[in-house]
Design a protein that fits this description.
The structure holds three protein chains of three kinds. Chain A has one helix and no strands. Chain A is mainly alpha-helical. Helices cover 63% and strands 1% of the residues of chain B. The longest helix of chain B has 52 residues, at 224-275. Chain B has a domain at 45-257: Up-down Bundle (Four Helix Bundle (Hemerythrin (Met), subunit A)), CATH 1.20.120. By secondary structure, chain B is mainly alpha-helical. By secondary structure, chain C is mostly helical. Chain C contains eight helices and no strands. In chain C, helix 2 crosses helix 5 (91-121) and helix 3 runs parallel beside helix 6. Chain C is globular. Classes of the chains: A mainly alpha, B mainly alpha, C mainly alpha. Chains in contact: A-B, B-C.
């Protein structure tokens, strides 16, 4: 992979996108857990 | 109260997520400790399947995008950035579309699920717009030597990002949830029309100065490169959907939490008023059966709304000595 | 509806005539922005002259933010809001009236700024017809869009910062089109500018309709 031209940019984009999307996913999951503790189960419509 | 959830429900097995990897896919899990009544998270069997698929698709994308597909004749390996950039841009528009449609449906039907969906579409769309701008900028650097080019797509995306930030800012403010949702819905309904107008004008504007090389932002691709791009679309779409479902559930929970807070605060206030002597301050109880749907913010509401409204302000009563 | 509109427009303009905020504050602000641009860009070189159309419209947009915020503030106190809601006024009429008042103020401002750029930047108004048509279309576009978005943020404490954030991206096409039209008019090639003027007119119509339709919902919802 490092033999690629512009390898640095390609890596930056892919890792950056992964970080952005992954970070957002983690944020959402954390918020979901926090809120789930506050809300009684009946109000939820999943699981 | 009825609402639609995009994903189905599942059996009662709760699971804790494993740590996330690239793309944010979620897979597998372990049974929750003890017999807690229902999971304390926004996952379900459906999202676990979705997450697994997303993860697999991302893996295939890495394989095709970085290894199997060849470098482009002119762009060399920076074409691999396109496999992220183009799908992200497309899904950004999908997010905006979801917001507009959900806003319209909320204005029509007034079921809270549509409101939650509108918010989720915009927020997930914003994340994808940042990915689009970021990848587009880093594509431009090795290709044109600059971190930014004022081509039609990047410029429109920048304006669209501003529109989304504005929409989400409006959502966080205001005080009465109903008024807030109404205003947000009007704004959301205008989102897609705004995007269309902005895109058209920016394209037209840039086409005056465009030379053929700049137009190559969308290269013609075929073979393995086309496959990589298609896989990119698929993987991004799965990730988008997974994020959307979870974000929707978070929004849903937020609405419920607001109601729970409000009910608790009302009870507390009633108890307070019942203890207090019936004095001129009995306005505290009288003012406290607000008509449904126009409940003023109570001080305990931690939604960060920024303080009491100028309307019927319960804190006035609270400060009144009895 | 038209009667309600003229009622509201009359009221808004009368308040303006009495307080003269547009005259005494917004207009000087607009001229000040023009002067600031001259400081920022070199008035001796060709930059200022070439940038005149864009600078003109950017200044109009910034001034419009102030005018629209004022217009929205007129209806923000509880008494006025309730009065509007309880009155039998057609919300679409209220919208058109308010937008018309803002448009009138903006039009006056644009004339003033036009004189300003001719004097300060040495602009040469070759094709007056295109200039006037562009100003008309752009003014209606900005006024109607602004009135609608002003209603979206009215009553909020963060109104001052939220309005620009919401309104400016939406008005980006207006800025692009008006600037291109002005460039053609000032550069002596008006034929290329008329299509942009057409875009402005379309934008103006779209937002006028949208505002008229949405205003009722917004008035009730708040």
């Amino acid at each position: 992979m490092m033999a690629m031209t512009h390898g640095g940019y390609v890596a930056a984009v892919w890792l950056g996108a992964a970080a952005l999307l992954g970070g957002y996913a983690v944020t959402i999951l954390r918020r979901g857990r926090k809120l789930s503790r506050q809300v009684p189960t009946e109000e939820r419509r999943w699981s | 109260m009825t609402a639609t959830t995009p994903a189905g429900t599942a059996s009662g097995t709760s699971a804790t997520p494993t740590s996330t990897t690239s793309g944010g896919g979620l897979a597998g899990g372990r049974p929750s400790p003890g017999g807690t009544p229902g999971p304390a998270h926004t996952g379900s069997a459906a999202t676990r399947v979705l997450g697994l698929l997303a993860l697999v698709a991302v893996g295939v994308l890495v394989l095709y995008g970085l290894v199997i597909s060849p470098a482009d004749r002119e762009m060399a390996d920076s074409v691999r950035i396109m496999y992220v950039h183009v799908p992200a841009a497309t899904l950004l528009y999908v997010g905006c579309f979801i917001t507009t449609v959900a806003s319209g449906l909320w204005l029509w039907k007034r079921t809270p699920g549509w409101d939650a969906l509108a918010e989720s579409g915009a927020e997930v769309g914003l994340v994808f717009s940042i990915v689009t701008l970021f990848s587009g900028s880093l594509w431009g650097r090795p290709t044109w030597g600059t971190y930014w080019v004022w081509d039609a797509r990047l410029t429109s995306t920048a304006v669209l990002t501003a529109l989304l930030i504005g929409y989400l800012a409006l959502r966080r403010l205001d005080l009465d949830p109903d008024a807030r949702s109404t205003r947000a819905a009007v704004l959301g309904l205008l989102l897609v029309p705004n995007v269309i107008v902005v895109n058209r004008s920016v394209e037209w504007w840039r086409s005056i100065h465009q030379d053929s090389t700049l137009a190559r932002l969308d290269p013609t691709i075929e073979g393995d490169m086309l496959v990589a791009l298609m896989v990119g679309f698929l993987a991004m779409a799965l990730v988008f959907t997974w994020l959307l479902v979870h974000r929707f559930r978070v929004a849903w929970l937020e609405q419920q939490a607001d109601r729970v807070d409000l009910d608790a605060a009302l009870l507390a206030r009633r108890a307070e008023a019942a203890d207090a002597e019936p004095a001129p301050g009995s306005a505290a109880t009288a003012g406290f059966d607000p008509p449904a749907g126009s409940a003023p913010t109570v001080p305990t509401d931690a939604a960060g709304a920024g303080g009491p409204s100028t309307g019927a302000d319960p804190t006035d009563e609270k400060g009144t000595p009895t | 509806m038209w009667r309600d509109a003229s009622l509201i427009a009359g009221r808004d303009l009368r308040v303006e005539a009495r307080s003269r905020v547009t005259l005494n504050q917004v207009a000087p602000f607009a001229l000040l922005v023009l002067i600031l641009f001259a400081f920022a860009l070199d008035p001796d070189g060709p930059i200022l002259e070439r940038a005149t159309p864009g600078l003109y419209w950017v200044t109009v947009l910034f001034s419009a933010l102030l005018a629209i915020a004022r217009s929205a503030a007129l209806d923000e106190t509880d008494g006025v809001r309730d009065a509007l809601r309880l009155s039998a006024l057609d919300p679409a009429g209220v919208f058109v009236g308010k937008a018309a008042a803002v448009a009138a103020e903006l039009a006056a401002l644009e004339v003033l700024l036009g004189v300003g750029v001719i004097i300060l930047y040495g602009a040469d108004p070759a094709s007056l017809g295109l200039l006037l048509a562009t100003c008309l279309a752009a003014t209606v576009a900005v006024a109607s869009t602004g009135t609608l978005y002003g209603a979206l943020v009215s009553g909020l404490r963060v109104r001052e910062t939220l309005l620009p954030l919401l309104l400016l991206p939406v008005l980006a096409p207006v800025l692009i089109a008006a600037t291109r039209a002005f460039e053609s008019a000032l550069g002596g090639d008006p034929a290329r500018g008329w299509p942009w003027c057409g875009l402005l007119a379309t934008f103006a119509v779209l937002y006028s309709v949208a505002g008229a339709l949405a205003y009722g919902t917004l008035l009730e919802g708040s």
